[in-house]
Structure formats: structure tokens, C-alpha cells
Amino acid sequence: MGSGLQRAQSFMIVATLLYRASHLTVGALAVAQRRSELPLQYAGFAAALGLSALTYGTALRRGWFDRRHIWADALIVGCLLPLVLCTWGGLREPPAIAWAMLLGGSASAVAAISLERLHALVVIALLVVTHFIGYQAVGASPAVILGHLNSIVSSAVMTWLFRWYLLRQGRLLDEANARAVAAEAHKARYAERLEHHRALHDTVLATLTTLASGSVDANAPEVRRRCAREAAYLRRLIQQTADEVHHREIGTALEEAVGSVESLQLRVTAQYHDLPQVPPEVAAALGDAVREALNNVRRHAGTGHAYLTATRDPDGRGGALVTVVDRGPGFDPEQYRPGLGLRRSIHDRMVEVGGRATVDTAPGEGVRVELRWPG
User: Would the pLDDT of 37 be above 60?
Assistant: First the structure.
């Protein structure tokens, strides 16, 4: 579709083309009524038709008018043609020459929108002078002359106003589009930063918190391997080359989540049954949400064992159902305010891919986190 300015210009080309076409139609009918006389009218009409095809055909191809064609159209069709028909064409009555005079209106209209202001005024002045001379030569009444000259000037003024308004609206539309694109880019950058923050919370921060608590041996091979993986992630994050959407299957994503927490000495009993095919971004969201749920078990449940179950959603829609359960002390949902991990790393992450996360718990009954996609 192009920019707003381009669309405004295209509209003006089509509008003035239709205006000229209406005048040519009148000319064709007038010439056809005089088939046996005044052959110069045929040549004049052919010249007007040819210049119109050149002027508007070029404009449609290039997106705007060629000023050389506008000058040729104004001088030949608008100014010269009526005088030639009056002098050598044998037209001696106002009705007979009216079709040629009519073309001056569309010539002034296109000149007003395609030429510089001073040049447009010169063209309009030439049209007014030559048409006044032409109508005087055929004995037109003052009312006819004034009405026709008013038509030439009015056509120029109205098309210029239309073009000014359309170009103004086109610029406003382009500015609005530019602001929308900038806003979307800002939103995308914010979403990217938010996703990085979630990943840092679920990985590096979880590892550092565990090491700081002294609950694991920092020199254990599995802990060192995890630290190396997360150092590589931080390096990619700094270089802004990390791939946020991992193209992996749901089983692989869940196994990576389990492996990351098992390296921090959380035992996970995992059961997978009839896993569905899901989009890559959904698999990534499920894996990241499960990893954070398991991190919460390790940090808060007071137990070293968690249970993971993943299966096809039994509702028959081909979705996925994943649960993470612990047998810790649980908590009272009425008195608990969700933290960053539960709110952003689990709930928000699932909502963004069209899923949902629910937490079922009570004091003394452990915690059950259910992830369902689609929601």
C-alpha cells in the first residue's frame, strides 16, 4: 500500500484522471455528432487523448506526475487547442467549441497539484487569457465567459485544497505509524529484557542462592557443570546473542529442567505419558515454568524430593498437562503473596503462550502446581 503520502498522491492521480476522462467523454460525443464536417476536430481530439494518456499513464507508473507532461498538456490541450479550433477549425459558436474549452478545467486542476505554486499560477493565468480570447472570438455572452473562467480557477483551487488536506492526513498517518512501530520495538525490547530477567531468576540466581545457603558442595562436578552452563548463558546475554525460543520438544524441555535442579541435589520422580506435539515456544515455556516450580520446591518446601507428571490433556483438545508436586508443609494461599518466581516465571510465562498455571495448596498438604496448555 505504501506510505500515507504515497497513498494520498495515488488518490489525486486517480481523481484528476477521472475528471479528465469526463471531459474527454464530452469531447468524444461532440466530435461524433459532426462526423461529416470540420475534420480538424478529430485531430484536436486525438491530440488531447494522446497527451492525456501520456500524462496520466506516466503518473500511474511512477507514482506522480512528470512536470514536463503537465506543461505540454496545459499549453497544447488547455491553451492552444481552443485557439486552433476557433481559427482554423471552423467553430464559430460557443456550444461547438465548449468541449475543447472544458478540457481547460482538468488542465488547471492537474497543474495546481503538480507544479510549483508560481508555475501553477502562470498556467492558470494562461488558461484564463486564452479561454477568454477563444470565447470572445465565437461571440459568447459575458455570463458564459465568466462562468467558464470561474470553473477554471475553481477547479485549480479545489484540487489544490484536496491535495493539501490529503497530504496532511498522509503525513499524520505516517507519523502515527512511525510512533506505533517505535512503541512495538520498545515493547519487544522490554519483553526481551523481562524474559532475560526470568531466566536469570530461574537459573543463575537459583544456583547462587543454593551455593550461598551451603546446602550443596560447590566443588561437586554436577554443580560445577551447572555453573559453567549458566556462565555461558550470561556471556551470551551480555553479547545479546541468546536465542530466547528454543526449538525443542516438550519432553526434551522438561528433562532439561529436571536435570538443572537435580544438579542442585533435588531428587525428581518424573513420569511422562502420551506427550503431545506443541509449538516450540510452548515447549520452552513449559520447561522454564517447571524449572522454576522445582526451584521453589528445593528452596521452600523443606523436602529433597519432587514429583513431575506430564501427559496429554484429557479434555481431548490435544493440549498438554504438566504437574509439579511436593510433600512439604504447604502454605495458606489467603496469607501468601506470590513472589517473582511464581508470578512471572510461572504464571506470566504460561499466559504469554496461551496457557495457564494454577497452584493448589493448604497448610500441611504440600503444593501442587498445574500447568495447562492451551489455557
Answer: no
- Rounded CA-CA distance 67/50 in Å is 16
Joined together, the cell numbers standing for residue 296 give 521453589
One-letter identity of residue 188: A
Please give the grid coordinates belonging to residue 159: 484540487
Nearest to 112 by CA among 175, 148, 158, 56: 158
**CA 349 and chain centroid, separation:** 26
333: which DSSP letter? G
340 C-beta neighbours (distance < 10 Å), count:
14
Beta-strand ranges (E) seen in 208-319 are 267-273, 305-312
In this structure, are residues 352 and 285 in contact, taking their beta carbons and an 8 Å threshold?
Answer: yes
pLDDT digits (tens, 9 = 90+) for 232-252: 666 655 654 434 444 458 888
Which residue in this structure is represented by grid cell 476522462? Answer: 21
Residue 143 has pLDDT above 60, yes or no: yes
Q: In what order do the strands lie in the sheet with 320-326?
A: 267-273, 305-312, 320-326, 367-373, 356-361
Bridge partners (DSSP) listed for residue 369: 324, 359
Q: Report whether 263 contacts 222 (CB < 8 A).
A: yes
Q: Do 14 and 162 meet the contact criterion of CB atoms below 8 Å apart? A: no
Please give the helix or strand (H or E) that residue 371 lies within, else none: strand 367-373
Residue 310, classed as helix, strand or coil, is strand
Higher pLDDT, residue 207 or 332:
332
Domains, the chain, with CATH or none: 4-175 (no CATH), 243-373 (3.30.565.10)
Maximum pairwise Cα distance, the chain: 112
Contact predicate 207/227, CB 8 Å: yes
Q: Which residue has the higher pLDDT, 339 or 149?
A: 149
What are the angstrom distances between the C-alpha of 50 and each of 56, 87, 269, 364? Answer: 10, 22, 84, 92
Q: What is the pTM of this model?
A: 0.51
